[in-house]
Design goal:
Blueprint: H1 3-31, H2 41-63, H3 69-86
Helix pairs in contact: 1-2, 1-3, 2-3
Amino acid sequence: MSFFDLLNHLVNFALPAIAMGVMVPLFSRLIWRKTPVKRPLKLQMLTTSLACLAVLFTGLLIFSTDGKMATYGVMVTVAAVCQWWYQGWRV
């Protein structure tokens, strides 16, 4: 495997987590405009992306394959919990 093939695989592995980590905080700010935000947007994007990347890596270790729907479901749940945590644990 060449360096560019490896780089392509790594980017395609991380892209769903990074996209989820960027889009969820942006959309949550669009949906709840009147809610005061306690953390900066970049920090929300970074932590959500890192949490989603951790979920993808854990799913890769558990299932020994990439792209399982269970892993993506847990990734969506973790992104939602991150935003819930940033909004102040309201129910």
